[in-house]
Write a structure and sequence with these properties.
The protein is 27% helix and 24% strand. The chain has helices spanning 6-26, 57-60, 74-87, 148-153, 157-167; strands spanning 45-52, 61-67, 103-110, 114-115, 133-138, 141-145, 181-185, 187-192, 199-201. The two termini are 17 Å apart.
């Protein structure tokens, strides 16, 4: 059962696109539209991903920022995440206006992270590639990978755990440490088929 209707997903992708374009072109932060569905004012976690169109998935990423926890209303979080993905992802220079025609927008609406319980060696059996995203925390370090990432890269569950450790700045086997907390979550993902094109729900498998 989907939490986010297809029309809401399209609304969020269009909103994220407009937020990016207005900020990149005019340094203007848009306001939530008056016709925002009531349900999208609920607090939810969300990530916005910008991808280069017609580029292999492993090379397509142009920016990805979001909020793992439901701390903002979804409509506001989507605007913030979209702008941050365009100009504040430390892995990339800010998006330039001439790039906008070549980028697709993807919005992932997250469920709250759930702690993976039990002994560390059993963690791979308690997550599933194609369903779960991961958040790993140890001390001051944390890292998150969305559910679509291991699918695009062809990882199994152990590699997914190792790569999330690496994303957190930790050794790849840190998921075997009892002091490392591993959380799983799911996401409903909506994407443009091509820049400014139709929006579809993205299947993971």
């Amino acid at each position: 059962m989907y939490r986010i209707k297809d029309e809401w997903g399209e609304f969020l992708v269009r909103l994220a696109r407009r937020a990016v374009e207005e900020y990149v072109r005019h340094k203007r932060v848009i306001e939530p539209p008056e016709d925002t569905p009531t349900e999208l004012w609920e607090k939810m976690g969300v990530f916005v991903t910008l991808n280069r169109h017609n580029v292999p998935p492993q090379m397509a990423l142009r920016g990805c920022i979001g909020f793992p926890l439901p701390i903002y209303p979804l409509v506001e979080a989507t605007i913030k995440a979209a702008i941050y993905a365009a100009v504040d992802d430390p892995r990339f220079p800010p998006v330039q206006p001439e790039e906008l025609d070549e980028l697709t927008v993807e919005v992932s609406v997250l469920t709250p992270p759930e702690l993976v319980e039990g002994p560390p060696e059993g963690r791979p059996k308690k997550i599933k590639v194609g369903r779960d995203g991961l958040l790993i925390e140890k001390g001051i370090y944390s890292g998150l990978l969305l559910p679509q990432v291991p699918v695009e890269w062809g990882w199994d569950e152990e590699e997914f755990l190792a790569q999330t450790c690496w994303k957190a700045g930790l050794p790849p086997d840190c998921w075997l440490d009892p002091d490392t907390k591993v959380y799983r979550f799911t996401a409903e993902i909506f994407e443009e088929e091509y820049p400014r094109g139709p929006v579809r729900r993205k299947p993971l498998v």
